[in-house]
Amino acid sequence: MRYLWRLLPLAFILLMAGCGKQNLSALDPQGPVAAAQFDLIKLSLTIMIIVIVVVFAIYLFVIIRFRERPGDTHIPKQVHGNKALEVVWTVIPIILLLFLAVPNVMQTFTLAEVEDTEDSVRIVVTAHQFWWEFEYPEYDVVAGQDMYIPTNTRINIELEASDVIHSFWVPALAGKQDNVPGITNEMWLEAPEEGVYQGRCTELCGEGHWLMDFQVIAVDPDTFETWAQNMATTDDDVEEETTVAVEGREVFEQNCISCHAVGGEGGNMGPNLTNFGEREVVAGFLEYNDENIADFIRYPQEKKPGSLMQAFPQITDEEMDALIDYLDSLKVLD
Ligand SMILES: [Cu+2]
């Protein structure tokens, strides 16, 4: 037992390793913004390590060299008011701070430059308790939860919030920035490779904050154009393109459409569901499967505490099956 506590740090490391989610690390930067920010992290870390090593080396030297020996009454030479020393330990930190400040300030201005170019894409990201809305004004598209972007393209982002302060963070692509009600913050990012980049709200925004995850899905520019055009099509087109469970569509119209839009039709109180059938994740954090979808629709607050969605315990099994069939059929890329 006495030695067992020594294993605690190891257990802690193993426990924390379990927290890792794919692509949820700023230490594996993807794209120019994350890479530039990672360079600043490395620069700061290097300077800090040099300072620690030098200070500890001097400290160790001093406590060994000037330690009290038996019978030793000699007091070391006092350096109080020594001009040369004062200048040295004032100038060195100034130089180190300059090494930190110049690249940091330069990058801060570069990363704040949000300008539309010929092929840049603008996205208005609005945070809600507890979900994400992605509006593409150039395409007249609104999407929920999954932010589709074209690869190797400058994505200019406007951050807004509908209720309280949230914070938009896709660690692999860019540092976090706040969504503040009444204020529009701007940032940009670029993804070099196709794939799913995990995103997360990083500002405590209420009960369901810890489940306010989203995904950034980077696809090649042609696929993105197809996606955006199909997302923008009218409701009728969506119906034509998909094998609609007609009954499910009816259940949807009776219960869901006042808050959730499909195609151009429906409310905007909850996430847009035009491409729901293509999601890998339900409500930001649940595995996409029939059971999770049904449970969430019937008792949303049990899955996501604080969710503003109304509960629908009255939907029968038969209706639910049809509704899920319909939701499954909502695809824009197939
Ligand atoms: Cu939050």
From TrEMBL:
<keyword id="KW-0472">Membrane</keyword>
<dbReference type="InterPro" id="IPR014222">
    <property type="entry name" value="Cyt_c_oxidase_su2"/>
</dbReference>
<dbReference type="InterPro" id="IPR001505">
    <property type="entry name" value="Copper_CuA"/>
</dbReference>
<keyword id="KW-0186">Copper</keyword>
<dbReference type="InterPro" id="IPR002429">
    <property type="entry name" value="CcO_II-like_C"/>
</dbReference>
<dbReference type="InterPro" id="IPR009056">
    <property type="entry name" value="Cyt_c-like_dom"/>
</dbReference>
<feature type="domain" description="Cytochrome oxidase subunit II copper A binding">
    <location>
        <begin position="118"/>
        <end position="230"/>
    </location>
</feature>
<keyword id="KW-0249">Electron transport</keyword>
<dbReference type="InterPro" id="IPR034236">
    <property type="entry name" value="CuRO_CcO_Caa3_II"/>
</dbReference>
<keyword id="KW-1133">Transmembrane helix</keyword>
<feature type="domain" description="Cytochrome oxidase subunit II transmembrane region profile">
    <location>
        <begin position="18"/>
        <end position="115"/>
    </location>
</feature>
<dbReference type="Pfam" id="PF00034">
    <property type="entry name" value="Cytochrom_C"/>
</dbReference>
<dbReference type="InterPro" id="IPR045187">
    <property type="entry name" value="CcO_II"/>
</dbReference>
<dbReference type="InterPro" id="IPR011759">
    <property type="entry name" value="Cyt_c_oxidase_su2_TM_dom"/>
</dbReference>
<keyword id="KW-0679">Respiratory chain</keyword>
<feature type="domain" description="Cytochrome c">
    <location>
        <begin position="243"/>
        <end position="331"/>
    </location>
</feature>
<keyword id="KW-1278">Translocase</keyword>
<dbReference type="InterPro" id="IPR036257">
    <property type="entry name" value="Cyt_c_oxidase_su2_TM_sf"/>
</dbReference>
<comment type="function">
    <text>Subunits I and II form the functional core of the enzyme complex. Electrons originating in cytochrome c are transferred via heme a and Cu(A) to the binuclear center formed by heme a3 and Cu(B).</text>
</comment>
<feature type="transmembrane region" description="Helical">
    <location>
        <begin position="45"/>
        <end position="66"/>
    </location>
</feature>
<keyword id="KW-0812">Transmembrane</keyword>
<feature type="transmembrane region" description="Helical">
    <location>
        <begin position="87"/>
        <end position="106"/>
    </location>
</feature>
<protein>
    <recommendedName>
        <fullName>Cytochrome c oxidase subunit 2</fullName>
        <ecNumber>7.1.1.9</ecNumber>
    </recommendedName>
</protein>
<dbReference type="InterPro" id="IPR008972">
    <property type="entry name" value="Cupredoxin"/>
</dbReference>
<keyword id="KW-0813">Transport</keyword>
<comment type="similarity">
    <text>Belongs to the cytochrome c oxidase subunit 2 family.</text>
</comment>
<dbReference type="Pfam" id="PF02790">
    <property type="entry name" value="COX2_TM"/>
</dbReference>
<dbReference type="Pfam" id="PF00116">
    <property type="entry name" value="COX2"/>
</dbReference>
<keyword id="KW-0408">Iron</keyword>
<keyword id="KW-0479">Metal-binding</keyword>
<keyword id="KW-0349">Heme</keyword>
